[in-house]
Design brief:
It is a single chain. With about 100 residues, the protein is of the alpha+beta class. It contains three helices and three strands; from the N terminus they run αβββαα. It has a three-stranded antiparallel beta sheet with strand order 1-2-3. The protein is rod-shaped, with a radius of gyration of 27 Å. The N and C termini lie far apart (about 85 Å). The mean pLDDT is about 90. The chain binds zinc ion.
Length: about 100
Amino acid sequence: MTLMKPSEKEDEYFAREMFEKKQKIEQEKQKQLADAERQKAKELHFMKCPKCGMNLVEIDYKTIKVDRCSACEGVWLDTGELTQIVKLEKGTLDRLFSVFSK
Ligand SMILES: [Zn+2]
């Protein structure tokens, strides 16, 4: 077993510190890249139909906003909206969907 001289220990400490600093910088770069990618994806896909890529048209009905595709007529809901919709009375639900059929 070889004992490290104090200076070697110091070198190791600084090398490790330098490594951790560089590592942190790289991880920060990766995070920024991921954020940029996410932003780009959002700009590209926002209000586009997940199936055919055409524009969605938002319909406001009472407290619910339903997005409907202008091309394939698919209907998309935001988070929480499905729960709201299943709680609607049949009459209200019929009126909501009658908006689409005109
Ligand atoms: Zn579509």
